[in-house]
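Pilot study result, target chain (64 residues):
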Amino acid sequence: MKKEQKPSCPICGKPNTWTPENTFKPFCSERCKLIDLGEWANETRKIPGDPVYPDVPSGDLEDL
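Predicted structure:
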């Protein structure tokens, strides 16, 4: 039998159990999952790297 992984939640840092019953993994709760989603939507979280459209301001991408 495999051991359960016990990583911490990336949002609040609480210990977290990665089991099939935890539908919010890698987060500890729906609240932390939604906080993370909001950070991506507000662009406070980004994937590092060069922009896909470097010569187009990000506000203009909606017009593409």
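One observation from the pilot: The radius of gyration is 17 Å. A full batch analysis is planned for the follow-on phase.
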